[in-house]
Amino acid sequence: MSTVLAKIEEVEAEIARTQKNKATMGHLGLLKAKLAKLRRELLTPPKGGGGGGEGFDVTKTGDARIGLVGFPSVGKSTLLNKLTNTESEVAAYEFTTLTCIPGVIYHKGAKLQLLDLPGIIEGAKDGKGRGRQVIAVARSCSLILIVLDATKPATIKRLIEHELEGFGIRLNKRPPEITFRKRDKGGISLTSAVQTTNLDTETVKAICAEYRIHNADISLREDATADDLIDVIEGNRKYIPAIYVINKVDCISEEELELWGQLPNSVLISGDLEWNLDGLLEMMWEKLNLIRVYTKPKGEPADFEAPVILRNDKKHCTVEAFCNKLHKSIMKEFKYALVWGSSVKFNPQKVGKDHILQDEDVVQIVKKI
Predict the structure, then answer these.
(1) Residue 275 bridge partners (DSSP)
(2) Total structural domains in the chain?
(3) What integer pLDDT is reported at residue 125 of this predicted model?
(4) Which residues constitute the domain of residue 221?
(5) pTM of the model
(6) What mean pLDDT do residues 317-346 have?
(7) Where are the alpha helices (DSSP H) in the chain?
């Protein structure tokens, strides 16, 4: 590991001292590809090395998993206790939580699993402390809450982002609009639907050569960067929404409060005094992008007490996805569905399995006779 760390430091130092201009684009792309490969080598668990460690093997439950991430003593355990009534040890000294402690939030009919992760330290992405286990669990989350201490410098935010990015987590970003397809011959073909300022053929070839890829079709549908192309080639990046939870705002001045409030994707709270926890829950719901769909048995009123929770995208909020969430066998007997709600033009409307549902729709399944 020390050899890999030394190589990472060398490559990072060379990137830092290389001037960024058109002439060096290819060389910088090559260096970034080398760095990505070294990080993958560093963070890949050794074969036969066991699991993630005591307390980290937490079974995924509920409709979504949310991870509390932050440096030690920022109030993660307090927040878990307040939101879930789970007992996670709280103390005014660092590294209180040494394992992953789960809790459950019930909100708008959804069951949300909240994980209090041990405080990460600078260098976690390089395997320091228990950073590997902490961030590996964070990669499995639907949403990450980055808890920051309002009394500490705002620069800590960037340090945490750097650690998560080093482990292949991309916060509040979508996958790059790049199509990458290997082929047997023909060399490297680069096409673009937009004007590009960050990638040229030389840079793309240099990056591909580092991965020993000599024949591929690459199509850009945005002004992508070398880092974007590397992410696509690596193929193991996680694009996860994040909320910056600014805790302990009861301990700062109005001027500091105003400055923290300008941070995008942030919510100001006091875990100890339970200030604005409802606001945090609402932002969590918005970021998770979930919808509630209610069931209606034939001849009976709709069940508004126990909604079926679906992800709000075209793949995961269809009638078919709704049926599969209820039971895998339903689609075998599915004939059509009757839907009441904002996704249809009139109520009820007869729809097929590909119909896209919207929040608070009511669905009745009609089976084949």
Answers:
(1) 270
(2) 3
(3) 55
(4) 2-44+176-234
(5) 0.86
(6) 96
(7) 2-17, 25-43, 76-84, 131-138, 155-166, 201-210, 226-234, 254-261, 277-288, 319-326, 330-333
